[in-house]
Design brief:
The chain is an alpha+beta fold and 177 residues long. The chain has a domain of 104 residues. The chain has a 4-stranded antiparallel β-sheet. A hairpin with a 2-residue loop joins β3 and β4.
């Protein structure tokens, strides 16, 4: 009889170890799943925020006419001490044409007046403006065509979260009411 109890205790110990291993594996899987869901939720939130940043800058650019290099109107921004010393505007409010946005970048993103948008450290907005052909808008043109392809990108670190590309022509401005 004594021998059976020893074997019974041995089997009970093995059962307890196996049950603990199974429960531990399930806990690790559950924690991994929760972590994955949290990362996905953060990515979706970042993507939505990036799309808004991209769209607002694209709308701002669309409000400007197509033109050559244009002349920047120099105004003084009383809120910015740098403007008091050199008489230039640090924000985009001085941009009068779409072409002035070419190669513009802001990190962290700023509004049109040059104020940093809070909570976006490590984020960057970039603009690329190219003169393109009417026939092949994917190909840059060396001659003036009156057509621009504008690309706005929003990045967090080195990862692109949103991009929008649109075409804008000088002829479009002439038909607007």
């Amino acid at each position: 009889m004594r021998r059976r109890r020893t074997n019974a205790y041995g089997f009970a110990m093995i059962e307890a170890v196996l049950a603990s291993a199974i429960v531990g594996g399930l806990v690790v899987a559950a924690i991994s799943l929760v972590g994955s869901a949290a990362r996905k939720k953060a990515f979706v939130a970042d993507t939505a925020r990036a799309r808004v940043l991209c769209r607002t800058l694209a709308e701002e650019i669309c409000s400007r006419p197509v033109g050559g290099s244009g002349i920047v109107r120099v105004t003084i921004n009383p809120r910015d001490p740098a403007d008091q010393t050199n008489g230039t505007v640090s924000g985009r409010e001085a941009f009068t044409t779409i072409d002035q946005y070419d190669n513009w970048s802001s990190s962290p993103p700023k509004d049109e007046g040059g104020t940093v948008i809070t909570g976006l450290s490590g984020w960057r907005r970039e603009v690329d403006v190219k003169t393109v052909s009417w026939i092949l808008p994917d190909v840059s043109s060396v001659i003036e065509t009156g057509m621009r392809r504008v690309t706005v990108r929003v990045l967090r670190g080195q990862k692109e979260l949103a991009r929008t590309t649109f075409l804008r022509s000088a002829d479009w401005e002439g038909i607007q009411p």
